[in-house]
Amino acid sequence: MSHIFHRFPGNLPPVAVAGDGVFIIDKDGKRYLDASGGAAVSCLGHSNARVRDAIITQGQKLAFAHTSFFTSEPAEELAEFLVRRTPETLTKVHYVSGGSEAVETALKLARQYFVAKGEPKRGVIISRERSYHGATLGAVAISGNAWRRAPFEPLLFKSVQIAACYPYRGKQGNETDLDYGLRVANELEREILAREPGTVAAFVAETVVGATAGAVPPVEGYFKRIREICDQYGVLLILDEVMSGMGRTGSLFAFEQEGISPDIVTIAKGMGAGYQPIGAAICTQEIFDTINSDGGFAHGHTYLGHAIACAAALEVQKVIEDENLLENVRAVARYLSESLNERFGQHPNVGDIRGRGLFQAIELVEDRESKRPFQASRKLHAVIKKNAMQRGLMVYPTGGVADGKAGDHVLLAPPYIVTRGE
Length: 422
Ligand code: PLP
Fold this sequence. Notes:
single chain, 422 residues, Aspartate Aminotransferase, domain 2, 4-stranded mixed beta sheet, binds pyridoxal-5'-phosphate
């Protein structure tokens, strides 16, 4: 009997005891190919010796020093490493321990920025349908995922959701990608104009949608228009790259491929690759200076800038760079996408196969013609996962919001070290 409040009711999951590259090994010696990186986390696989040594070395020196008293070498080095690789407007790294904390931090940065700037009426957050931004209350409040919100509605602050950029389900008739992208981006302008001027603080979006819509990249031009609208109305653009960032799509940040830069970007999963819990919100110098001119950020978690976590994440990022792993991401991604299309492209229950980099998904439908989704999403996910695990394969079935507007999908996000053979 386990005393853990496990994620899913029912049978206990297998006990993981070891890692070996892209494999996790359970107590009985069974090997599971981690084709989803857990949930797009384990970008270096499970037994990287350089990261292990970095954790040990830092642990022998200093595990933790509270950041209200000290900074630390690994925290400073990691921030410098990251800032050198972000667009030059993004200069300040606020550390956290995971994705939800990164999103909460971004929301509070946006809000306090406007308070400090003398625009206290700016408190509205606009986000998108079919989005997932985390499990904490602020993150749930802006996430467009009906069943995750439902039990907690009375606890959530009010936010506004516009349509996602989700061409498989949203593009109409003979609309081109460009027309479609502009149409859905312009919903942001419509929402801003529908409110009293100067009341919207930020627009939040996943650059490539992860867990709720299933590795959906934006169409060309969508984020350029979003950036324009945000600039025109003085609204901050927060891109949530907790899942899609840190190399997952073939560039360090997914937004690089859109030709724009946000005011705040959130990162987490690929940052520490699962070797340590760590995340960050990276913001502009202007946000940092404005908040500091008002006495500093009224926010901060105990474990922010944890020395061992920072040492691990720094080594993860150095390994990715030293071993040129983003090149592998791009090369294997092409092969993965071709193979998925070849193998499943004509399957009667496959509606769409899409993604970017090593971040791909197969959308499942009950009826291909009408794109009708399955109704019993959670049951379907459980069956897929059980069958895959029996065969020694980890995939991540998710999505499906029971309102008929989105399908279920199987997310694939293998480690960047994965080979074609694997
Ligand atoms: N934002 C996005 C885009 C995510 O995909 C997730 C997790 O899947 C989160 C935020 C929340 O991250 P965490 O589970 O580390 O709190």
